[in-house]
Amino acid sequence: MNNLFSENMWLVWSNEHNAYWKPARRGYTKDKDAAGRYSTAAATEICDNANQFIPENRIPNEIMVPSPELVSFLTLLWMAGVRR
Q: Whole-model pTM?
């Protein structure tokens, strides 16, 4: 499970464009299934770069969102009673 959060399990939502980032950082889509899947490091980099000049207590331009696959996996773990 340690590797799970470094895999491509994150989406990047753009508040600025009201859409998800597409794969390979190329455009935007409102379709969650068509959204790009990013590693924790890549999604963090995207968000950090996009939000670096946002004043404190303001809505960020970009945010990391767990992918549906990650949510399903964590739900299964929780239902199985595995809480770490």
A: 0.85
